[in-house]
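Quick one: co-fold with adenosine-5'-diphosphate.
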Amino acid sequence: MEGSIEEVLRKYWGFDTFLPLQKQAMECVGSGRDSVVVLPTGGGKSLCFQAPALLLPHLTLVVSPLISLMKDQIDSLLDNGIAAGRLDSSLSHPERNGVFDRLRERRLKLLYVSPERLLMQGFLDFVRNNGISSVAIDEAHCVSMWGHDFRPEYRQLRVLRDALPGVPIGAYTATATEMVRRDIVEQLRLNSPEILVGRFDRPNLLYRVRRRTNALKQICEVLDRHKGESGIIYCIRRTDVDEMTEALTEHGYRVAPYHAGMPDEERKRSQDLFIEEEVDLIVATVAFGMGIDKSNVRYVIHAAMPKSLEHYQQESGRAGRDGLEAECLLFYSGSDYLIWKRILEESESQSLDIGKAKLGQMYRYCSSVACRHRTLLAYFGQQLGKESCQACDICMGEVQGVADALVVAQKILSSVIRQGERFGAEYTAAVLTGSREERILANRHDALSTYGLLKDVSRSIVRDWIEQLTEQGCLERAGEFNVLKVAEKGRRVLKGLEEPLLLEPPKKKPAPKPPAVKDSWEGVDEDLFERLRLLRRKLAQQRSVPAYIIFNDVTLRDLARRRPDSPEALLRVSGIGAKKLEQYGEAILSEIRKS
Ligand code: ADP
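Sure, here it is.
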């Protein structure tokens, strides 16, 4: 057995400090208490059960829902010199026998299993007879129907509590709602568990929301800001993924598609290309993500609005797991709302009302001018605790509401009425901006009291405001020519009973990094960082593991900042423990010495 948990952290992972709540979570495992640990993505959940495993006399059993998740964690453990194995349906007979041999010989510290395997006849007796010290249930929200990934087989994990008396069970998840948390305790029949809930804010994520006007152009602008970095683009439908992939490839970007309609092997190939950094970018539906532990995703773009804030938090949360700055950009339009509404209505789901309510909340998030961090946190029942997040488009002053939105909206709506509700958006914008077009003069609409009322604004902006009013339900489109009509809500706006929100077009060019986290590049020799990145890729290819298993970006930047020149100095870099030093020390030192 090793010494203290601090020593374990230092020796095997090369970390000097705990992330918030990690130590408390580890103490539960060490003291034999059940626990529920809710930490955001990137909060360091896996270490909460992996580090104590090295101090416990017997095996730590980890239940995990996905083979890819297990593989990733095991690659990472092995690379740190920790005896870990897995049992799942992808293993061959000899491989499986090998794992059982090692269990009998008590040579494994951690064993990852799928719930199906755990529930197989005789398996729990087997592990009990061969010594077990603790159980970890990863992605524990899968036991709950209230979560977003319910898995019926997780429900049967309730047998664990009786089958392994006295063995602490830890349940780990990033899903924050109170209901899911209570469900986990109940379903797993945990025994007065310690409940540890972390802060859900991810200050390293910079949130931006933009109305979608020209998706491809808007997305290319973002990609050009993130040259050479890894990112994900989420689309709603499979066809959107295919089209976007084709368009981006034509524009010279290195892209792979991912959706449930692709054959298994092609999908797997796309995922591998992304994880191994052969392509920078994956274009995907929501089918992509669970089980991807890639820590250096530097941006997540939503080409369209997701269907709920839970989904948005999950998907955007895949950026910046390593704690370094990352950008989450969402492009939306009113049509996304309609597409989701139709999908919801066509699905068999019994909870159509809940689905629609969530969709409404998502849309309000997009179209509001409230701090994004604050809104997301509030949704999960937490408060921001500071005036400004300094890491969203609103707090950075990139997007603002129109100061006199009510008056502007009334001008637009009353023009629609005065035009007899017989014309489309383009025409209405032309009237309001005082155009001398022939069709307007022919209709004598230059004589309307609303003619030229918004002449100080460009026609495209007025056109966009009309779009915004339509999305908010003040205007409706009717007939084959999409003529505008004022809806009930619009009439209330005209009477001043309701105030719509109109956005100004974004003024500033987006800053590449939020001011709050700019200094993560401070002192980093960027040229050396690039060379180390290539070295990392080479080492990863040699070992057939993803690049981020070798080192995460924090370690790479720390190396390029401190330029260590000896094995002792290397050990002082975050993320380099004894085993990493032994495996990669020489290669890194010689790369650093080259400059
Ligand atoms: P989660 O499963 O909660 O999303 P992970 O366990 O994948 O989080 O950890 C996220 C990142 O944080 C990983 O790159 C991991 O190496 C790093 N990490 C975890 N614990 C620490 C720590 N105590 N100090 C520094 N980095 C840590």
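If it helps, The chain has four domains: 5-197, 205-379, 405-494, 521-593.
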